[in-house]
Amino acid sequence: MKIWVDADACPTVIKEILFRAAERAKIETILVANHFIKTPPSKFISFIQVSAGFDVADDEIVKRSAKHDLVITADIPLAAEAVEKGCLALNPRGELYTESNIRQRLNMRDFMDTLRSSGIQTGGAPPISQADRQAFANNLDQLLAKLNKAH
């Protein structure tokens, strides 16, 4: 099992939580981005830089991930592909994407896209809060504990 991080938009504080978890759980964690991201020296943490372009990092994660891997992303289409492939997908706010909720998330995302393209200002997501960080860390720990028991 590996952790794949859609690192282009992943908040620094979430990456730091992931770095600590990778060391503690001794789990391979790979950040994928189209710009350089500094990672701590670790045999468990690596970085793959992909070329710039729409969804290039997402496509790389989908191509390289395997069933039971964990994908960290706020990108709902990437999460949908990961879930479809049999991966777990967790967003930086600690919400787990599942087969039962991903369709609804995709529909809402498409609806908001339609509103934005028609000129309606929808605003963005609020900044990551302390509660979001805690939810992410807690859910990450729970997932890693479950996966350790299973393997």
TrEMBL record:
<dbReference type="InterPro" id="IPR003791">
    <property type="entry name" value="UPF0178"/>
</dbReference>
<dbReference type="Pfam" id="PF02639">
    <property type="entry name" value="DUF188"/>
</dbReference>
<protein>
    <recommendedName>
        <fullName>UPF0178 protein ESZ26_17545</fullName>
    </recommendedName>
</protein>
<comment type="similarity">
    <text>Belongs to the UPF0178 family.</text>
</comment>
